[in-house]
Amino acid sequence: MINSCQSLYQSYGLNCNRQPDDKQLSEFVPVIWFELVSNSQPDDKQLSEFVPVIWFELEKDVDKSIKEENDRNKQKYFKSCDQLQNAVQVRFCWDKFQEEDPCRFVKTSDAYIPIHQFWSETIDYFEFQRCGGLISHVNRMLGSEVNKAQGLSAAGSEQKLSLMSSAVSKRSDDYPALEMPSGNSLMELLDGLVMMYHIAAHKSLMELLDGLVMMYHIAAHKQLGKRCNLRDNMKEFVESLQDTQEKINRCPPDEDAGIREELNRAYKVFHNKIEEQSRKMAWVTAVTYSKTKRSDVEWLLKVVLQTIKRAAGYKLLFQYVPEYYILTAINAFNALFNFFHPTVPFESLDNYNETLHNYALFITRHFSDHRILNPDVREEVVQALACFICYPESLKVLESLPEEKTKEMIEALITPHENRSLSQTNWILVRIWKGCGFRFRFTHLPHLVPSKVQTAQFGFASLQKPLPSYVFQDLIRKLLLQDGERATKFLDMILNQLNWSFSEFIGLMQEIQQKVTSPELVILESRQLKICATCFEIAVCLMRIIEMIVTKVPEVFLDPALSSSELLLKRLIQVLCQILNRITARNGIFEGVVSLFIQGLPNVSYFPIAGAMIGILIQLVIKSRTESKQAVLRYLISDPGFKVHSLEYLVGKLSSDTKNDEDILPEEKTDVDDLTKYLKLNENTEFTQHHVKEDDLCTICYSDQMSVTFVPCGHQSCRNCISHQMMSKKECFFCKTAITDVTDLKGASILTKSVKSGKS
Fold first, then answer.
1. Claim to verify: residue 716 and residue 653 sit in the same structural domain
2. What positions does the domain RING-type occupy (predicted)?
3. Rg (CA), the chain
4. pLDDT, tens digit, for every residue of 79-119?
5. Which end of the chain has a smaller Cβ tally under 10 Å, C or N?
6. Secondary structure of 214-228 as H, E, C letters
């Protein structure tokens, strides 16, 4: 059957690739916006010129059911691509105007929607929101800026708009000149210097082009996705058919007849299903996933990217752009990259490099754009960047962008942002590092089957091979060393998230263990299992980010010249020891739940968290300078949660989760041995500690002596605790009074400057 499917595709492959030109399309496509042709549907004679001829030839020979199915497919797939067929008509009309007046109209390859179309009332955008929110809100906030951008001013008590003279108007200093893709300037139109014919033509073309973008967002992209699902389903059935055939071949002749009969029945079911889907896929290949349709989507993507690029130059007026322009740019690229490919390879685009470059500029410019208010739209852009960075070609494009663009992107990634999902941002940082960390070269966890059991938040992109970016790693190091305040806030955010995510994970594990060990039958909720697995993955991602920082920028933790390094190192050791203590406790929660192999927790195992933990400790203890080792060792040994035997237990679990010894590099084995030997050798080292009376201990951490006083309330704590508090809040731990100053016990001010400036 597999061979017959292959021969089937070969037999009509040439016919599927016979694509009509624009003239042919304009003769049969039902046009809904203008009267170029009648609205009648094409007959079979017209269709047979460029669709799989094999189905028209076979219709007279096949049974009635297949013929009826063929008729349904014919109507379904042609109806589903009407939206993309309209792109041909828009391009046809646009080029027609351009041929008649080449001085005033640009070609379709340079088409875009001018920004003033978005604030004018010439186009009805229905209930679609703008990047800045509701249109009423945007008008209220930016109405005066619109007038300024147009060179208009309010004159007289009636507030009538009038053109400002060139001597008074300073529009060009604040905003670019308003241009239109027809080649005319807005001022020429307002002054009546352009013929009414061109004004009407420009208005019609803008309405058609904007309607095409809207239609793709509403319907066309969803239809492309459904056709892609058909291809994926067919692939799964083919794999199942192959698997069944192999089982039949391995089945001994003397085997139970019932087993062989069941296998033959399954084979027949898969055979019939593939036969049915192959007929549907023939229509999809010829009508939807064709080079002509792909060129339409490519052109639409170029139009949208050009529109967004030009609108972005108008500062806050960019908020007039409808949200669906941002989403259409992302969806159109996704369609070219995932839906049409591999039927029509993405690399065969006419403007392959230009498309990648323009899209890279778009996502780097707008993934942290404060002008986009809708959090869902921002999430879409962040996720687009997360997927884009996973592939070799796209990563090279990102690295080759102008330095100011890559710098802005990395600055946004390492800057705390309340209005952006931190999980996706952290995932991008992990992808930048993946392939460089300790035992961090896998595409999927060693104990899991790829893409079958483990979750994939970003689809196929998350299962790409590790592809570290040394360019971005070096840029992260440069930015963190240049700005100590940014580095401190970034690491404080990472440590806070790590502490929160792991605490939530342990809490959920306790609930799961209680249900599992309950004498009553309790069904575990899939939602609870998913949240538990997500918290674990977030914690592991954060630990890998810390591993990257400790490796590339160890100074932020180990340089005594930096005021925050000691505090950050102490907090890091505390969090690591807490995690180590929890996951290595004999007969503890982690070990108990992991040993049950619960279906909803496939990623929760020792390997990912042990690899990240050991990678951090190797960099802190083995790879650091001698004086830094002593500081790390002092905090490790003095922490009550740290035990060398716990670390050895974790190393053993890490090895047991690895099925292939080739995954372990010789230097990694050496580093692990050196780490355990060094810590065992110094486990009993006694560091000089001053005896502190219990009454003098800091009541926040109970580990250091109280050394500072808060002004004006007079409460006291140790310096580390108040420094940590000042990173996020400027209020007393106990009475919540706003802190105006921090003094030592002798009354000398020590943090006044930090408090006033909001710095730690």
1. no
2. 698-736
3. 32
4. 555 566 677 778 888 888 778 777 767 788 888 888 888 98
5. N
6. HHHHHHHHHHHHHHH
571 CB neighbour count, 10 Å cutoff: 20
Residue pair 707/699 in contact (Cβ under 8 Å)? The answer is: no
535-538: which pairs have CB atoms within 8 A and are 24 or more residues apart? 535/501, 535/502, 535/504, 535/505, 535/508, 536/501, 536/505, 536/601, 536/603, 536/604, 536/609, 537/603, 538/423, 538/426, 538/497, 538/501
Dump pLDDT digits (tens) for 591-640: 888 888 888 888 898 999 999 999 999 999 998 887 788 889 888 888 87
Query: Residue 269 falls within a domain, yes or no?
Result: no
* Residues 740, 759: Cα–Cα separation, whole Å: 13
Q: Which two tokens stand for residue 163?
A: 């053109």
Per the model's pLDDT, the better-predicted residue between 304 and 178 turns out to be 304
What are the residues whose beta carbons fall under 8 Å from the beta carbon of 481, sequence distance 6 or more? 487, 553, 555, 556
Of 681, 709, 738, the domain-final residue: 681
Closest CA to 621 of 676, 567, 576: 676
User: How many residues does the structure list for the chain?
Assistant: 760
In a 10 Å sphere around its CB, with 0-12 CB exposed, 13-18 middle and 19+ buried, how is residue 411 labelled?
middle
Tokens read off for 290: 């064709």
The pTM assigned to this predicted structure is 0.80
Domain count, the chain: 2
Q: Is 110 part of a structural domain of the chain?
A: no
- What is the rounded distance in angstroms from the CA atom of residue 222 to the CA atom of residue 486? 42
Per-range mean pLDDT, top range of 67-81, 197-211, 374-388, 654-668: 374-388
Domain identity same for 535 and 610? yes
d(CA 483, CA 171): 36
pLDDT of amino acid 555: 93
Residues 731 and 632 both lie in one domain: no
Q: Do 443 and 590 fall into the same domain?
A: yes
User: Residue 601 and residue 589: Cα distance in Å, rounded?
Assistant: 14
Domain-ending residue, one of 626, 647, 681: 681
Q: Which residue has the tokens 């809708």?
A: 374
Residue 262 identity:
E
Pair 636, 714 in one domain: no
Q: In this structure, what token pair is assigned to residue 281?
A: 């896929």
The residues with which 429 forms a beta bridge, in sequence order, are: none
CA separation for the pair 17, 106 (Å, rounded): 31
User: Are the CB atoms for 361 and 333 separated by under 8 Å?
Assistant: no
Q: Do 556 and 496 fall within a single domain?
A: yes
Give 97's contacts (C-beta < 8 A, 6+ positions apart): 105, 182, 201, 205
Distance CA 28, CA 2 (A): 36
How far apart are alpha carbons 423 and 376 in whole angstroms? Answer: 14
Cα separation, 501 vs 495, whole angstroms:
10
Residues 537, 677 within the same domain = yes
Contact between 623 and 576 (Cβ < 8 Å): no
User: pLDDT at position 500, please?
Assistant: 93
Nearest-CA neighbor of 52 among 381, 282, 233?
Answer: 282
Read off the tokens for 718: 């140790």
Q: Give the pLDDT band (50/70/90) at residue 239.
A: confident
Phi, psi at 179, each rounded to 5°: -115, 165
- Alpha-carbon torsion (567, 570, 576, 577), positive or negative: negative
**CA terminus-to-terminus distance, the chain:** 70
Omega cis (within 30) before 712: yes
Nearest to 227 by CA among 274, 281, 278, 273: 281
CA triplet 126, 131, 135: central angle to 5 degrees?
Answer: 45
Which residue in the block uniquely carries the two structure tokens 């009414």?
196
Range of the domain at 742: 694-757
Regarding whether 714 and 572 lie in a shared domain, the answer is no
Q: SS3 sequence, 64-120?
A: HHHHHHHHHHHHHHHHHCHHHHHHHHHHHHHHHHHHHCCCCCCCHHHCCCCCHHHHC
Q: What are the φ and ψ backbone dihedral angles of 720, each rounded to 5 degrees?
A: -60, -40
